[in-house]
Amino acid sequence: MPLRRSKALVKWIYENQHKMQTLRRCSSTLRYKELEESSVPSLEPVAEVAPAHEPATKPRPQLTPDISFKFDDLQVTLAAPYQLQKKPEAIDLGFGKYFTDHMMKINYHRELGGWQKPEISPFEHLSLHPAAKALHYAVQLFEGLKAYRGVDDKIRLFRPDLNMQRMNLAAQRSGLPMFDGEELIKCITRLVQIDQEWVPHSETSTLYIRPTLIGTEPTFGIIEPESALLFVILSPVSAYYKTNSDGAVSIYADPNVVRAFPGGVGNRKVGSNYGPTIEITSRAAKLGHQQVLWLFGPNHELTEVGAMNIFVVYINEDGDKQLSTPPLNGLILPGVTRRSILELAGEWKELTVKEEVLTMQRIADLNQQGRLLEMFGAGTAVVVTPISNVGYLDTNIPVPTMQQHNPVYQRLKDTLLAIQYGHIEHPFAKVIT
Q1: Long-range CB contacts for residues 340-346, cutoff 8 Å, separation at least 24
Q2: Where are the beta strands (DSSP E) in 87-197?
Q3: Is 263 left (phi over 0), alpha (psi -120 to 50) or beta?
Q4: d(CA 54, CA 267)
Q5: Is the Cβ–Cβ distance between 85 and 100 less than 8 Å?
Q6: What are phi and psi of 376, to 5 degrees?
Q7: pLDDT > 60? residue 26
């Protein structure tokens, strides 16, 4: 096409883009109508496992929208040689200090028909309007998963479908657009393939994957944003935080502060759950503790520890060893590692596995009776972290986690790592070719 005609076409598109947007909206509306009238059943991922006391017929939300971005539309722009970053040594990684050469962005504009084409591009800063809803009303959410380099040099993701389900649930609660989780997994897989050399050649380090969805509409109204941005960045990481010399942590339980409340968003991975925890975590650190044990209610019920789900191992009234964790009652994040632990441990005949309400008085009584064996936290960032002490009110409750012979926490951690690093084949692991 001659240069003059090309310039004329660009000028016409610029001057008539409002007409094109209207046309696209009409086309999208027709597409919605076609899908509604179609007899093809929609995909509906399994929702969170409900606590035992909830009816089995509880309706599940539709988490897969009719219109989503598609992996087939993914556009890739590779970084130039001068844009490539020097890869740090594994010993220097820390957590979230370094980022890979590329990122992925997917814009959403209701005026343009919804989700736009996914794009992988060189890592760059975001440009946001100062009035973007994410900056003022915390209209944002995120996920966290990892890519593991196995003993066979293959790269694996761990149950990414559960992260997608959880992300869509958070989007639904936040008034942000939902999407087809399988399409995002495919896009993330391609991003990891491009930056695969950033996946550490080590079983003590991983590549952390952070999908984030934010409201970008530049208005002050507290309503569903008409524009949003879903982006994914990657970071090679090692240990999340320092532990004591024996590998365990001490936790601080202050009943005067709460992380979540009934009817809130404690069960969704939104940023507003985390910022307000910084001050109390700093206070706990000054008292010699690594994490905060979040309590709730007049009975001081255990909910989470730091950003982890919490587990307790004790001898129950029947004389059996029991693994317990608080139920998903709306206060607790439905962790991927949490669910995996319950499913894996549920297959072990020598262990009773149960979701139950646990209070600090119950923990103190079990400890006094010599029946408390272990406590540990579990999550994507830390896998499994043993707990050796609980600072509660004016006392310290020593937990004999590290004195156990063949402790449950260690068996669970070893099993999870074996799956993630390919020592054993398991359906939880998704191999990236």
Answers
A1: 340/158, 340/159, 340/416, 340/428, 341/311, 341/378, 341/384, 341/412, 341/416, 344/412, 344/415, 344/416, 345/408, 345/412
A2: 102-109, 114-115, 119-122, 140-142, 145-149, 155-158
A3: left
A4: 16
A5: yes
A6: -155, 155
A7: no
Query: How far is the C-alpha of 197 from the C-alpha of 93, rounded, in Å?
Result: 15
Q: What are residue 56's phi and psi, to 5 degrees?
A: -70, -20
Q: Would you state the pLDDT for residue 9?
A: 53
- Residue 17: is its pLDDT beyond 60? no
CA atoms within 13 A on the CB side of 412: 32
Quote the DSSP letter at residue 270.
Answer: B
Burial classification of residue 27, based on how many CB atoms lie within 10 Å of its CB (0-12 exposed, 13-18 middle, 19 or more buried): exposed
- Please name every residue paired with 335 in a beta bridge, in sequence order, or none if there are none: none
Instruction: Output 265 or 13, whichever has higher pLDDT.
Output: 265
Q: What are the two backbone dihedrals, phi and then psi, of residue 363, each rounded to the nearest 5 degrees?
A: -65, -45
> CA 327, 427, 149: angle at the middle one, nearest 5?
105
- 63: confidence class by pLDDT, cuts 50, 70, 90: low
| Helix, coil or strand: residue 45 | coil
Taking the C-alpha atoms of residue 72 and residue 77, their distance in angstroms, rounded to an integer, is: 15
pLDDT for res 41: 34
d(CA 117, CA 74): 6
Do 234 and 187 touch, CB atoms closer than 8 A? no
pLDDT of residue 54: 41
H or E segment and range at residue 120: strand 119-122
User: Where are the alpha helices (H) located in 195-335, listed in sequence order?
Assistant: 278-286
In the numeric block, which tokens belong to residue 401?
Answer: 């986690």
Q: What is the per-residue pLDDT across 343-387, written as a single tens digit (0 to 9) for each?
A: 999 999 999 999 999 999 999 999 999 999 999 999 998 899 999
What three-state secondary structure class fits 179?
A: coil
SS3 content of the chain, % helix, strand, coil (to 5): 30, 25, 45
pLDDT value, residue 64: 60
CB of 229 within 8 A of CB of 213? yes
Backbone angles phi, psi at 20, to 5 degrees: -65, -35
Q: Based on the number of CB atoms within 10 Å of its own CB, is 364 exposed (0-12), middle (13-18) or buried (19 or more)?
A: middle
Alpha-helix residue ranges (DSSP H) falling in 175-307: 181-194, 278-286
13-18 mean pLDDT: 45
